[in-house]
UniProtKB/TrEMBL annotation:
InterPro entries: Cupin_8, JmjC_dom, JMJD6_ArgDemeth/LysHydrox. This is JmjC domain-containing protein. Residues 327-346 are annotated as: Disordered. GO terms for molecular function: 2-oxoglutarate-dependent dioxygenase activity; sequence-specific DNA binding. Residues 327-345 have a biased composition (Acidic residues). GO terms for biological process: positive regulation of translational termination. Residues 118-274 form the JmjC domain. SMART domains: JmjC.
Length: 424
């Protein structure tokens, strides 16, 4: 299978052909051409050997911007469980290590990853999210929290740094834009997990160097490979396994995100991870508080408990219900800011601040059109159903527990969704 490339693509075509079909695509330079990061973080240099013009990091600009920040750096030659060993260091020390070896042929194998640079320096607007990726429920929700966090990252790695074989957190999508350097991506087509999973559930760490006795059939796996160049942007679909290698010092910006098209995958993954936790803790199944314990372990190992997932969905539901009701009451008297805060079905004890205006400002108009609102609400309803039924949990005897009142709030929110769906 060939990797698809689109020089530029409308939001609607992207939704129809890639979000809906959950297929990867590479978008050409159009998405990033105006970014400050593309203009200020790179310099054009002439390759001594070939005479070609290359884009390399503008170390001085990067040092001035971020030098004193602390970043997490992976040591790509040191395996740590299913990931790489990581340490914290000042960004300036990281840059100096990479810079000072430049004359030699060696690589430091150092890879600065998952750095929340927007949260740390919001006043420096390095980029704008391409419209195709702007229906981003995960980041909208994270930024609405009393202590906002996010899934917006800065990556910078020396030549030959790499990211082990994985699928993305929570079955989210990712988009990743290259600022300089090249990324070599390998995607394994969906439906082949059995080829890279052993009988204990362990998956391959490095697809270019793995134990052929343990994974004898992996060489038969169907894959797609792609080289991503500076300024190009890649869409990584939900649940697709992939590995990435950098060629040349490489900088990228990426988001993990989700929306109406993959929200049910988020629940499927939560239930898969939960089933594994129930299984891992099987020796204490008869203990009091077993189900609560499972939620604590689920949160610690996978980042999200059931209650948090529900709070996330309730928040997003409140945003879309507000949009739907605003639309409905167009022309009627509205409150000053055009929204009606009393309409939120969110549980106040969850501590989340409904702020529909944030999401409206953030998403491309295509994603807030009436058909998109209806589609989103129907997918949220489906996700609630899966949560309540325990769809995908391997041993339904151990249905997950939620914090008190969440079930009732799901019920009342579903009723509100139904009333919107029935009038459309
Ligand atoms: O760029 C990398 O090293 C990894 C990026 C990745 O895995 C992703 O964007 O999903
Ligand atoms: Fe990834």
């Amino acid at each position: 299978m060939e990797f698809e490339r689109q020089e530029s693509i409308s939001v609607e075509d992207f939704a129809e052909n890639y979000l809906k079909l959950n297929k990867p695509v590479l978008i050409g330079l159009s998405a990033t051409s105006e970014w400050r990061a593309r203009k200020e973080w790179v310099v054009a240099t002439k390759d001594k050997a070939t005479g070609h013009i290359n884009e390399t990091p503008n170390y001085d600009a990067l040092l001035e911007l971020f030098g004193d920040h602390t970043v997490t750096v992976a040591h790509c030659n040191q395996k740590y469980f299913s990931d790489q060993e990581r340490t914290d260091m000042k960004f300036k020390n990281f840059i100096n290590k990479i810079k000072n070896k430049q004359e030699g042929s060696m690589t430091t194998q150092l890879y600065c990853k998952d750095w929340h640079f927007v949260l740390e320096k919001p006043e420096y607007v390095a980029y704008t999210t391409p419209a195709q990726f702007s229906s981003d429920w995960l980041n909208i929700y994270c930024q609405s929290k009393p202590n906002p966090d996010d899934f917006r990252f800065f990556y910078m790695g020396d030549d030959r740094t790499w990211t082990p074989f994985h699928q993305d957190v929570y079955s989210s999508y990712s988009w990743s834009a290259n600022i300089c350097g090249e990324k070599h991506w390998t995607f394994i087509l969906p439906g082949q997990n059995h080829l890279f999973t052993d009988s204990f559930g362990n998956t391959i760490y490095n697809i270019h160097d793995y134990d052929k006795l343990r994974y004898p059939d992996f060489e038969k796996a169907k894959k797609i490979e792609l080289i991503q160049r500076p300024g190009e942007c890649i869409f990584v679909p939900s649940n697709w396994w992939h590995q990435v290698e950098n060629r040349g010092v490489t900088i990228s910006i990426n988001h993990n995100w989700c929306n109406a098209y993959n929200v049910t995958n988020i629940i499927g993954r939560l239930h898969f991870d939960y089933s594994n936790v129930v299984h891992a803790l099987r020796d204490i199944q008869d203990m009091d508080g077993f189900l609560e314990q499972c939620q604590i372990v689920l949160k610690a190992e996978n980042g999200m408990s059931h209650s948090e997932c529900i709070s996330f969905l309730l928040y997003i539901a409140s945003v879309y219900l507000d949009l739907a009701n605003d639309d409905e009451s167009e022309g009627e008297d509205q409150s000053e800011n055009g929204s009606d805060d009393d309409d939120y079905a969110i549980d106040p004890s969850s501590g989340f601040r409904p702020d529909a205006s944030f999401s409206i400002a953030y998403a491309d108009p295509y994603f807030t059109s009436q058909p998109s609102i209806i589609y989103a609400l129907s997918r949220i309803k489906k996700a609630f159903e899966m949560l309540v039924d325990g769809t995908g949990i391997s041993n339904i005897k151990y249905k997950p527990v939620f914090i008190p009142n969440l079930l009732e709030t799901i019920e009342s929110t579903t009723k509100e969704i139904d009333s919107v769906l029935s009038r459309n």
